[in-house]
Amino acid sequence: MTLADIIDARAVLPAVKAQNKKQVLQELSQAIAGLVAADQRVVFETLNRREKLGSTGLGQGIAIPHGRLPNINRVYGLFARLATPVDFDSIDGQPVDLVFVLLAPDHAGADHLTALARISRLLREPATLAKLRGTDTAEGLYAILTEPSATQSAA
Hints:
Elements: H1 3-6, E1 12-16, H2 21-36, H3 40-53, E2 57-59, E3 62-63, E4 66-69, E5 76-86, E6 96-105, H4 110-123, H5 126-133, H6 138-146, H7 148-153
Parallel strand pairs: 1-5, 3-6, 4-6
Antiparallel strand pairs: 2-3, 5-6
């Protein structure tokens, strides 16, 4: 499984405007719900329920909200750059500006964890972070996320 298997070009948002974590989750739930043919409220509740267990803000301005949905058939991702960083209760206390939403089917098993690990490794690469923060188009961001060297380093 590569990142290109998880995310497609329509699932990259270069300048999401939100004032706080709840608004980020609402905006991104709405965006990914259309891609996975799920109810936006169900997606939001799924992501919000996971956040209540502990923040998905990993540090370095990165968050990976994730959850499982019963009626999807594969792992889906959505990447967003926030127009303004927001407090995400991250472990390092830093605001978040890069968010990768991950949704998996209930029956995904290890695929969910594998995808989460790949995304986490990719987003911890300083060179990748610099490229993502220096690019302001959806096409450019998608290219960075799915470039072969990024996919291999995230494997």
